[in-house]
Amino acid sequence: MDLKSNHSAPVLTDSAPLSKSRLGGIMKTGVLDDVRSSGWLDAMKSSSPPHKKFTKDLNHELSSPDPEVAYRTWLLKYPSALASFEQIANFAKGKRIALFLDYDGTLSPIVENPESAFMSDDMRSAVKKVAKYFPTAIISGRSRDKVYEFVGLTELYYAGSHGMDIMGPVRQSVSEDHPNCMKSTDKQGNEVNLFQPAREFLPMIDEVLSSLVKSTENIKGAQVENNKFCVSVHYRNVDEENWTAVWECVQDVIKKYPRLRMTHGRKVLEIRPMIDWDKGKALEFLLESLGFSNCDDVLPIYVGDDRTDEDAFKVLRERNCGYGILVSRSPKESNAYYSLRNPSEWEFPRTKFEMYSSFDLVLLEFKGKKRFLKDFFIYAVK
Ligand SMILES: [Mg+2]
């Protein structure tokens, strides 16, 4: 990812899979704008499930019109974490486990209104149980305060704004190594390390937030969310014919701020500081803060569903340490090792299908076996 601070075209720095629209520097400006626009529109269209495009390096069976056949084939490459339970447990023997969880689409369902992405009580209970035994952190694109409001568990560590706002355990060596890391206290009065590598961008982000709230106010369904170190513009509820208008609003604002960049997630465009920091870096920071940097006796597990989680999956893969688990109900290329999705998901009618995230469905399906997850972790440290 190109994160040069003097980059003049922030839209081009995103690592989004825009292979068809990835731009060179020799095009004329007018054409460039059109291509950029159509490229991002393509990406906007494909950024949310159901995702019907299958990746090129999976075998031809993935193009099967039968989604179940395609999914089963994809599972050969990204086996179900639950089906691979014994394998993971064997690998975890004698290792210290740490669990890292994305929020939206992983712990909570993807819903029409992002303000209503509540996690189920079952999920909260499962996370609470796991956190009893192992250090557990949420790494979300939401603001840290907001994701804490949703989760409501004091026993977790929280990293908001795609890891640009981390409240983690105190560790002297970490705070000395990171200039933006300071001692603070959490809501319970416990001493913590607060790390905000993009702190200097706060006034700029506030300006962008105000501009975008104003410029999108006439686009029906557009929602601008303040995530402290990034601004999210949701277009899930915008008619597709108006997606260009959303994109243009974001472009009009961001072009005034060369130190900001635009990325996109599931039906959301995000503006964030152009710093070399992402969920992968946040994961490394938290591992270091926990004293878990040594790969030999540590097994980090990261569960996530979105493109931004790929940075964390990649870190684990490159360190050859731990597992990324992709929550997905459709085949897609990933840096994760395993996947999660309810096996009977295709049997759900669409209305119910949309109600739950894949991870929720897994827990619902294995409701009587949630102990299974807990037992796994207990077993793993024996
Ligand atoms: Mg997510």
Please describe the structure with a list of short key phrases separated by commas or semicolons.
single chain, 382 residues, binds magnesium ion, globular, 35% helix
Question: What can you tell me about this protein's structure?
Answer:
Its cofactor is a divalent metal cation. It catalyses: alpha,alpha-trehalose 6-phosphate + H2O = alpha,alpha-trehalose + phosphate. It is an enzyme of class 3 (hydrolase). This is Trehalose 6-phosphate phosphatase. The chain is an alpha/beta fold and 382 residues long. 35% of the residues lie in helices and 16% in strands. The strands form 2 sheets. A 9-stranded mixed sheet has the order 5-6-4-3-2-1-11-12-13, sandwiched between helices. It has a 4-stranded antiparallel sheet with strand order 7-8-10-9, covered by helices on one side. Helix 10 links the parallel strand 11 and strand 12 (323-327). The protein is globular. Residues 1-35, 49-59, 342-372 and 374-382 have low confidence and may be disordered. The structure holds magnesium ion. Magnesium ion (MG) binds at residues 102, 104-106, 304-306.
Report a brief summary of the structure.
This is Trehalose 6-phosphate phosphatase. One of its GO terms (molecular function) is trehalose-phosphatase activity. By secondary structure, this protein is an alpha/beta fold.
The amount of beta strand, in percent, is 15-25%
Order of helices and strands: HHHEHEHEEHEEHEEHEEHEHEEHHH
Number of strands: 13
Biggest sheet: strands side by side, in what order?
5-6-4-3-2-1-11-12-13
By secondary-structure content and strand pairing, the structural class works out as alpha/beta
Mean pLDDT, rounded to whole units? 76
Query: Gyration radius, to the nearest Å?
Result: 20 Å
Spans where pLDDT lies below 50 across 5 or more residues: 1-35, 49-59, 342-372, 374-382
Bound molecules: magnesium ion
Mind describing the biggest β-sheet?
9 strands, mixed
Q: First CA to last CA: what distance?
A: 40 Å
Overall shape: globular
Helix content: 25-40%
User: So how many helices?
Assistant: 13
Pathway: Glycan biosynthesis; trehalose biosynthesis
InterPro entries: HAD-like_sf, HAD-SF_hydro_IIB, HAD_sf, OTSB-like, Trehalose_PPase
Pfam family, one: Trehalose_PPase
Protein name: Trehalose 6-phosphate phosphatase
